[in-house]
Design goal:
With about 150 residues, the chain is mainly alpha-helical. The chain has one domain. Helices cover about 75% and strands about 0% of the residues. Helix 2 runs antiparallel to helix 3, helix 3 packs antiparallel against helix 4 and helix 4 packs antiparallel against helix 5. It is elongated and about 55 Å long. The two termini are about 25 Å apart.
Length: about 150
């Protein structure tokens, strides 16, 4: 019975199958950690607007796109046309690249804060945002690798 319900690596899942397959199980943690980055950066006092503005853009963009991607896969909208495995692979590569490009400046700004206000509430929130940002980067990168493996199996 278990063998009949298991998804092969070459098929794209739909419905609740996205909660059980290798690359797609990362959608929920990506949403959680991306949302945490969004909330934490939004709750701090923004001194250098540029890096934290980019972090906000990346976290909101990736949160919305990942949610839409999750809804498309859950509703089975990807079954109507081909190329979804390639699109999944490309999106997660870009999301990992975006998050990496946002995590590095966020960490740099936070290190700069450590010299001025190491005991302040904003500094502690920024540290949490950096940790969650790198965690989201790692999750998107793992999803990218597993999506590349699935893409190659098509």
């Amino acid at each position: 019975m278990a063998a009949a319900t298991a998804q092969p690596m070459g098929n794209l899942p739909s419905g609740l199958g996205i909660c059980t397959t290798a690359p797609d199980i990362f959608y929920i943690p990506e949403l959680v950690f991306g949302g945490l980055v969004w909330i934490l950066v939004a709750s701090t006092h923004v001194k250098p607007e540029n890096p934290q503005g980019w972090v906000m853009y990346v976290s909101v963009f990736c949160f919305v796109m990942t949610f839409l991607w999750l809804v498309i896969f859950a509703c089975g909208g990807h079954k109507n046309s081909g190329g979804w495995a390639t699109a999944d692979f490309v999106y997660h590569f870009l999301a990992a690249l975006f998050y990496l490009s946002a995590s590095v400046p966020l960490a740099s700004v936070t290190i700069g804060f450590s010299k001025m206000e190491a005991s302040s509430k904003n500094y502690k929130i920024d540290i949490a945002a950096v940790v969650f940002s790198y965690t989201a980067t790692l999750l998107y990168f793992i999803h990218f690798i597993l999506s590349a493996i699935r893409w190659k199996s098509f």
